[in-house]
Amino acid sequence: MKKRDAIILAVTFIILSTLLGVYFFTRYSGSGSKKAASFQVETLEGEIISFESQSDKVFLLDFMSVTCTVCKEMNPVLNNLWTDSSINENITIITLEIDSFTTKEGLENYKQEYNISWYVAFASENMVDDYSVISLPTFVIISKEGIITFHDTGVIAEDTLRDVLQQTINGELSGTEITTRSEFTIGFAVLTGIASFFSPCAFPLLPSYLAHIIGQDQKRKKEQNDQSIEEQDSNTLTSATEKEEHKGNSPVYLLIGSVGGVGILISYGILGVLITLIGGSIKKYVPYLVPIIGGLLIVLGISMFTNFSLQFNSIQQWINKKQRKINENREKRKKRETITKINQTFLYGIGYGLASLGCNAPIFFAFALQISSLSVTKIIFGYIAFSLTIIFLMAFATLLISLSRDALLKKIRNATELIKKVASVIIILVGIYLLLEFFLLS
């Protein structure tokens, strides 16, 4: 590796690592909140429960799902706490179903099956995020003053919960900080968008296609000039007015690039819809999938950086075959000129997205799974952040190359290997990001 390339890679790694470090430092160095978020839920019996309605009670929130095996194991513990005469007059227990795929009838059957005598309700839209529910079951204890005194996941000893409840009732606990996943959703969405655009599986396709788009403009302008002046004078005129012409066409190139970005989103959108739909059935496994995917991404990034083949390229070979077929068909259609420049860019964006999935499917899979358990609002904002990142990068790349043309295209082609290594560093950092997020929150 050349010294210049090594310096660029080192700077890239330092910048991205610093950004991640700042994120996690601000995220976990006292930036959390001990104050419980306000909520209001309707029980299966139709009763409205909120802080205001039972301000003299200590709340024990049990975030669960009817498909969660561990959640079922905790029901006898909750029953013993609910019937414990030493604390039951001062506490309110609410079992909260977070899975939107569960029907009211299904939750009622669950309540009857386990003889649950405390409150059962569906978690409101923002509660999963407000109380940082990343694993099931999650237990949260809230004091009469609205302060969170306990937050933990998994199987918890009955004595532990009883002691915390008693201390909370007596006002002996100052509170514990928890953080929401809103920052993670937006940050990971942007990082996923960047990794998807600079995918080493697809990025080498960008210069050649944009050269084709820009070349069509040059050809059209040259033909127009040839009608009025000689070829030599035409070249001089084109050279003299080149910057002004492209400057005037900047909005057009921004539009073309944005349409290409939308094409990329079509490929990812289909996968995102599928993952979101199946997310309800595999939601209980998500906490265990995330660190596995994070580890695989680190291995993938290292293999890409060192050019070591993992022999997992059958999918990419299939995608490349389809991409070549698309390119061949496009060449046949060029003579007929039935597809406009914008349509070409849109179709290219779809092909670009499919190609990038060969390397980035695990990243997008982890992102889609993570946000699938959030509220509808958070899911929408997450996908918007991802989409805007893709569209911005595609539009910016199109505009930049249209202004610089041949010189920049040549540099990008020559830097393909460097771009691949930078992308591999990004993938490694995404893997580290997932592992840190999982272990720090759990």
Plain-language structure description:
By secondary structure, the protein is α/β, with parallel strands linked by helices. It has 2 domains: about 10-25 and about 185-225 and about 245-440, no CATH class; about 40-180, Glutaredoxin (3-Layer(aba) Sandwich). About 65% of the residues lie in helices and about 10% in strands. It has 16 helices and 7 strands. The chain has helices spanning about 5-30, 70-75, 75-80, 105-115, 125-130, 160-170, 180-195, 205-225, 230-250, 250-280, 285-305, 315-335, 340-370, 375-405, 405-415, 415-440, and strands at about 40, 50, 60-65, 90-95, 120, 140, 150-155. The strands form 2 sheets. The chain has a 5-stranded mixed sheet with strand order 5-4-3-6-7, covered by helices on one side. β4 (about 90-95), α4 (about 105-115) and β5 (about 120) form a beta-alpha-beta unit. It is elongated, with a radius of gyration of 28 Å. It starts with a helix and ends with a helix. Residues about 20-30, about 230-250 and about 335-340 have low confidence and may be disordered.
Explain briefly what this protein structure is.
By secondary structure, this protein is of the alpha/beta class.
Name the descriptors:
two-stranded antiparallel ribbon, Thioredoxin_domain, Glutaredoxin, transmembrane, single chain, Sulfite exporter TauE/SafE family protein, 2 domains, transmembrane helix, five-stranded mixed sheet, alpha/beta
